[in-house]
Amino acid sequence: MFVLTAKVLSKKEGVPVEGQKVLCRAVKGADGDTYWVVEKNRLKANSADSSVILIDPVDFLSDDGRKLARVSYWPEEEKAD
User: Fold this and answer.
1) How many Å apart are CA 15 and CA 52, to the nearest integer?
2) What residues contact residue 23 under an 8 Å CB cut-off, 6+ apart?
3) Which of 21, 68, 69, 78 would bridge 55 by S-S if both were Cys, CB 3.0 to 4.6 A apart?
4) What is the chain's alpha carbon radius of gyration, rounded to the nearest angstrom?
C-alpha cells in the first residue's frame, strides 16, 4: 500500500470503470497527479467537508484512461488497557 495525501477538488462526475459509470470525485495527490476516488467511499471514510484525504493509488486506469485511487485512512491506534 502506497498512501498519499490528496486535496479534494470540486469536480465530481460519472467515471467509466469496467463498463459502468461510477460517481467519483477528483483529488490532487501530493505527487501532483489527479486521481479519481469513489465519492460514496470518500464520504464514508472522511467528513464531507474534509479538504485533504488519504488515498492509495491503484495500478489500473478507468475505461477512459483516468488514474484511480482508493480512499484510505489511518487505522485507529490500539488503546492500552
Assistant:
1) 21
2) 12, 13, 14, 15, 38, 39, 40
3) 69
4) 13
Distance from C-alpha of 7 to C-alpha of 51, rounded to nearest angstrom? 6
Q: Which residue has the cell 464531507?
A: 48
> Whole-prediction pTM value?
0.86
Q: How many CB atoms lie within 10 A of CB 47?
A: 8
Mean pLDDT, the chain, integer: 90
Segment 7-23, tens digit of pLDDT: 999 999 999 999 999 99
Neighbours of 4 (CB within 10 A): 18
DSSP type of residue 32: S
